[in-house]
């Protein structure tokens, strides 16, 4: 498979943050793109008329045989990143992946190229600040991370593993993201909230760099479910990320160190509100368990050496472009 050929591509999660950017890029490159969508999915970010829609459900398997018919390349981007129950993570991330792999195998698509989007959370945080390699022993902290690790393991057991590649992004930000947006909103009001007094460090990637990394994995990855971290080469500190955004917005920011007990109480209250609304929130005890770890750092040298891939956007440039988009669409005023 080469970048110069044209392929029939299935994208799951194509209506979401990362998936919609990937679909745009695939269409621009001239590929025939099919998107797996629900009947209730918003199509606001899809290039209407330039992609084929296949209606189905990963969690139940409905419509998947039709969706995978004739595809040569699959980008499995869809996943549950926040939920009101542990079961929802496993249903969306593990069972959904198993159903997709089953539909491909049953349809005779066992030679399909399969790019699986996982997460650094499937491996866990670094215990000492040293960036983790892809072969580090997995130690996920949360049901989100464990369910994504389970999906990786399902792929490795599948007949499709020969043509499969796993990409593990860390924190992803950029236009259309609604999670990191909440941090930017707090910064606009002049506050940087930190859990506890210790500085925290994390790997990060702009969504457009991630998309290029996914394409590099598709074209150059060796298969056999080999995993790659796609991220900026150097982790950033929570303060550095906040200061960069504050500078772009022209804000002076005060750091508020929230005690862990208070943070957990707020997360617990947010979960109660989320269950009452029937809509999950980014503020939860699961997310707090990840946020209070000092080091979420990954080593990107394998992607550089084996895929020839390195990110292109500096932190400043990526934040500037992201905030400019938020401002343009009215999500953030500054």
CATH class of the domain at 8-178 and 203-237 and 295-314: Alpha Beta
Strand composition percent = 15-25%
Identify the CATH architecture of the domain at 8-178 and 203-237 and 295-314: 3-Layer(aba) Sandwich
The multimeric state of the shown protein is single chain
**Poorly predicted segments:** none
Number of strands: 14
Radius of gyration: 19 Å
Overall geometry: globular
Strand order of the largest sheet: 3-2-1-4-5-6-11
Proportion of helical residues? 40-55%
Task: Reconstruct the topology from this structure.
Elements: E1 8-12, H1 17-28, E2 32-37, E3 52-55, H2 64-68, E4 73-76, H3 86-106, E5 113-117, H4 143-157, E6 164-168, E7 171-173, H5 180-188, E8 191-195, E9 201-202, E10 204-206, H6 207-220, E11 226-229, E12 236-237, H7 238-249, E13 254-258, H8 260-277, H9 285-291, E14 295-296, H10 301-307, H11 315-329
Please give a structural write-up.
With 334 residues, this protein is α/β, with parallel strands linked by helices. It has a domain at 8-178 and 203-237 and 295-314: 3-Layer(aba) Sandwich (Rossmann fold), CATH 3.40.50.720. Helix content is 40%, strand content 16%. The protein has eleven helices and 14 strands. The protein has helices at residues 17-28, 64-68, 86-106, 143-157, 180-188, 207-220, 238-249, 260-277, 285-291, 301-307, 315-329, and strands spanning 8-12, 32-37, 52-55, 73-76, 113-117, 164-168, 171-173, 191-195, 201-202, 204-206, 226-229, 236-237, 254-258, 295-296. The strands form four sheets. It has a seven-stranded parallel beta sheet, with helices on both faces. Strands 12-9-14 form a three-stranded mixed beta sheet. The chain has a two-stranded parallel sheet with strand order 7-10. Helix 1 (17-28) crosses helix 6 (207-220) and helix 5 crosses helix 7 (238-249). The radius of gyration is 19 Å and the shape is globular. The model has no long low-confidence stretch (mean pLDDT 93).
